[in-house]
Every structure is written in structure tokens, then in C-alpha cells.
Amino acid sequence: MALFERLKAAAPGEWACYVDHAFVRGMGDGTLPEAAFRTYLVQDYLFLIQFARANALAAYKSRTLADLRAAKDGLSAIVDVELDLHVRLCERWGLSPADIEAAPEHQATVAYTRFVIDCGMSGDLLDLHVALAPCVLGYAEIGRALAPAGVDALAGHPYREWIGEYAGDAYQQVAANASRHLDDLGARYLGPGRFDELAALFGKASRLEADFWQMGLDAAGL
């Protein structure tokens, strides 16, 4: 079983709260209020800046060329793809990149991103990638779940562009590569008795992801 699947199985409650959150369900059926999505999107832009830093930290902590390439690919996926999606969507509300970057970070944004960076600073490369996994791999899982008949079937859906980004082949490949790299790190670093510690870390990161969704709902008064 892939390490990612083992981690999910070890934290079923935390994982379900994240991937089946009311925010996600609202995106899926199109009932999520725009105010909730807008708050989320601006904060997710700030979130991704910090996650780019986490991937830069992964590059610094890399001991092999393969690890270094994985960190480079993760950084590129954020800086060259995901941030551009957020800019395009925010332009609909007249928000420029400068406007978004000037927004204050919400407590939920700070809590999750600094948790991930702290895991990387205090632990090894496996700790860091386990902390990143709910975001990197979870968004791919959510994207697939929200587009069961494919992206083309979402014509007219208010959140088609967001869902399409994460359900699309390009991001699904990013996630598949990340899962394989996590397995490789596990083969090298997962010693006896360590899995329980990693499962706790994964569960905490998943709870913080759920809190991030909730932030958007709270902002809309839901």
C-alpha cells in the first residue's frame, strides 16, 4: 500500500473532515457562496506563497538529485501554475496580485503554513513531505471527486475553473509524482516505530486543512 494511503487509513476522521468538508460539498454542487470562495481564494494565494517556501526548504534539505528535482517541480507547480489560477479568478473581482499580496494573513493561514515549515525545519525531508501531503495529494483527490464525469461535464458550473485545475491531467500527474516520491522517502527514512509519529503529523495537517475551509465559511457567516 502506498504510504499516502496508509497515512489516510491511520487518520480517517481527520481526513474525512477535510475532503468532505461543507466548503468542498458547496463547491461541488455549486451552492458555495461567492463571498466564502473569495475569502478562501485570497488566503490560498498567501498560503501558496508559504508553501513555495516549504518546497524551497525541501530543496535545501535534499540529499539526492531526485529529491532536488522533486522540490523544483513542486515549487514550479505553485509559482508557475497555481498562483496564476488564483490571479485569473481574483481579476473577476478587480483584485490585482498586489491587492492580494497586501491582504493580511488569516489565523488559519498562519497556523497551517507555519506548521508545515516548522515540520521541515525541525524534522527531515520525510516529515516535511508528510506535512505537505494533505494539500498536494488531497487537492488532487478532491478535484477527482468533484468532477466524476470529467471537467467537460462541468459546463456552466460556477467553480468549473477551480475544479478543472485540480481534476485536470496536469495536476493529477503532479500528485502522482508526489505520491511516488513520498513512497521513496518512506523507503529511505521510515524506521521502526516512526509511522505513528508521521500519522499524527498527517492527521494534524489534515485538521488544519479543514480549518482552512472553515475560514471561508466563517467569513461568509455560515
From TrEMBL:
<dbReference type="Pfam" id="PF03070">
    <property type="entry name" value="TENA_THI-4"/>
</dbReference>
<protein>
    <submittedName>
        <fullName>TenA family protein</fullName>
    </submittedName>
</protein>
<dbReference type="InterPro" id="IPR004305">
    <property type="entry name" value="Thiaminase-2/PQQC"/>
</dbReference>
<dbReference type="InterPro" id="IPR016084">
    <property type="entry name" value="Haem_Oase-like_multi-hlx"/>
</dbReference>
<dbReference type="InterPro" id="IPR050967">
    <property type="entry name" value="Thiamine_Salvage_TenA"/>
</dbReference>
<feature type="domain" description="Thiaminase-2/PQQC">
    <location>
        <begin position="15"/>
        <end position="218"/>
    </location>
</feature>
